[in-house]
Amino acid sequence: MRTLLLALTTALGLLGAPAWRQDDRNAAQQPVQPAPATARSSAVGNARKWWKEAVVYQIYPRSFKDSNGDGVGDLKGITSKLDYLKSLGIDVIWLNPVFSSPNDDNGYDISDYQGIMKEFGTMQDFDELLKGMHDRGLKLILDLVVNHSSDEHEWFKQSRSSRDNSYRDYYHWWPAEKGKPAARRSFFDVDGDGWELDKATNSYYLHYFSRKQPDLNWESPRLRNEVFSMMRFWLDKGVDGFRMDVIPFISKDTTFPEMPAQYNGDWGRFYANGPHVHEYLREMNAAVLSKYDVMSVAEGVGVTTADALQYVDADRRELDMLYHFEGVSLGYLPGSLKVPDPKGFSLIEFKNIYSKWDGVFADKGWGTIYLGNHDQPRMTTRWGNDAPQWRELSSKMLTTFLLTMRATPYYYAGDELCMTNIKFDRIEDYRDIESVNWYQQVKNKGGDLQAFLAAQKIAARDNGRTPFQWDRTANAGFTSGKPWLKVNPNYTTVNVAVDDVNATGCLNYFRKLTQLRKSNPVLIYGKYVLLDKDNPDVYAYTRELDGRKILVLLNFRDKAASVDTGLDMSKGKILVGNYPAPSGDAKLRPYEARIYEF
Ligand code: NOJ
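ok -> structure tokens follow
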């Protein structure tokens, strides 16, 4: 079966001084007091920016809070939870797409970029949400999905209507009389084919994602201007920036050559960094981004350490940050997209990847760090351990990692509760087009469906999309109706109501860590140094700024592990730990995380 899945997935192509110091052994349980930020940009050759100092919290609106009982989360639902959001100590909220959409890919197929998705509410609801955030000092970033639109967007309706329609060049068309163009893989198509024949004009259109997500043609200056004015529309409303969906894919070689052998079947890498992508991003920056004090972050699919700075070196005037896929791709079988390696992942490789990416931004640009989002399974299941005895400890350990690296953390809603994968047994429970269409592919090829479902229990995107768990009432307090996706049955014990009043629970651990990061600029700007790099069980590193030194120790295993930091541990003061009474020695308990000041 492994061979089959491999073949399938390959085919799919798919600080200043501290204001506080804790000496006693229960320090980790004490509330963290904020200290004034006095970081100097000179320490890292990187200018201070609000978005470098921010903790970004991502909300999948469909799954956060339903206000009207239709089973789908909505904007009013988010507004009703703003005090909770503020209490987390986060700064920026990223909302997945909220725009009009037929929801083939849950809003990543937009039919009107300036309209709100009916299920999510109205523009008035949006304006109230934005005001509510700003009133509380929270910023809002939106998802900019402009590699493709929905096939139900007016532009596409026009474009497909005739070969000489004025919108024809808004999309990529290939006349069928020239024969079928060179293969392009679609990540979601049931046949894996990125070209769809449209009978009306006897032409193929390009879709890297589903058939209902035709790729926009950025070669058209008119299209680019439409995108830029749409961005201004939202920025003029006061939004604080954009997360840019698959933005490295926007430029294509429109001669559509065969995929060069050097890419070795890696479609994401091949699709990224097209011939004019940096021209277009510079144009976007000059026309839009540079006019506002906003942040931009690219979903850096296909971008490597070799080309990352081309997107985010401030001197190039393109974007601010990008998030890479190298880390979250670890632990899947080589050549496959999402088949977990039965051996798990190598922590040494994990450390190497995150250290290498830190190095890219040592002097220029700025990094991001994340382990979960709407395209990923729950971080606790994937990178920690969701067995009952380890769920909280391992999840808090991962939170410690995310909040202490030199990069803007993108933290996914629900991870503050140590939420876990739901692990559906049946394809009927999945809603995600990716899982549903891959299943169909395996079936069409006579593959091992049980093995496919087993892999999806770890890797499927719906694991990260189950409704947010508010309390122990029906449907976790997410909706009074029937939830669009099943609620994880562990909601009776894993929820905000329980965790909020538990001083040592997941939620308050996250709050403590956001406070710690904010009150200690060394954790934001301080130099990162990896220690004990060949240790297969423990991730250890220091952060240093202006004479302050922080040590972070993270045991990634379900057994005790030792670490050799080369530091005199008796000199360290423990600031935070995920065990009730962290000891200062070099032996870490299972999934133990400790933060020290030296
Ligand atoms: C990346 C988004 O994060 C994902 O959810 C979506 O399916 C694809 N891009 C297509 O827009």
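The longest strand covers residues 538-545.
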